[in-house]
Amino acid sequence: MALEHAILVSLLEQPGSGYELARRFERSIGRFWTATHQQIYRVLKRMETDGLVTGHEVGQDGRPDKRSYQVAEAGRAVLTEWLREPVQPEAVRHDLAVKIRGAAFDDAAGRARLVDEVRRYRAGHEETLDRYLAGEQRDFPAGEDLDTGQRLQHVVLRGGIAYERMLLDWLDDVLETLLKGLP
Question: What Pfam families does this protein's entry cite (predicted)?
């Protein structure tokens, strides 16, 4: 997937400025696609030049004007074409998994350092899961009727939650296995 597709989806959900898009990426789209503010602004400018989005200035009281974007017909066509293309399974690159496999060839001190690294890595994913769960409570309160777009957003979030839980279970297994091999 290209960043352009993620931006088009986000702008179809709600038009906005580059700053607003970056915030959305941090809160929701970042669950499955990351981009820096600079990448978003650079791609937005290129997309506007290519006619995929249109932008207009919006005045703000006491602050500089902002540029707000929405999807142009050409952008909608590009997104529709991409949505209908088949998706190939992604190859997973996981440095930590390779390090865990390589631990068989390291000494006890090296494996002990790897235990610390796995614990640090696990803590980061625990924070991510907590953030996803808080976002789910905030954005999808129980019992609330959701429209199709919201239900699709929620199912993607639930996939992220399931992935983080699976990863944490696996990391617990890794830690248990590594600790068995230490004196």
Answer: PadR (PF03551), Vir_act_alpha_C (PF10400)
Average pLDDT over residues 132-136: 91
Q: pLDDT band at 32, cuts 50/70/90?
A: low
| Tokens, residue 133 | 């769960």
φ/ψ bin of 135: left (φ > 0), alpha (ψ from -120 to 50), beta (otherwise): alpha
- Among residues 137, 10, 25, 1, the alpha carbon closest in space to that of 69 is found at 10
List 70's β-bridge partners, or say none.
54
Distance CA 142, CA 20 (A): 26
Whole-prediction pTM: 0.80
Q: How is residue 29 written in tokens?
A: 């789209």
* Contact call for residues 5 and 82 (beta carbons, < 8 A): yes
Is residue 81 classed exposed, middle or buried when 0-12, 13-18 and 19+ CB atoms within 10 A define those classes? exposed
DSSP 58-127: EEETTEEEEEEEEE-HHHHHHHHHHHTS--PPPPP--HHHHHHHHGGGS-HHHHHHHHHHHHHHHHHHHH
Predicted pLDDT of residue 164:
94
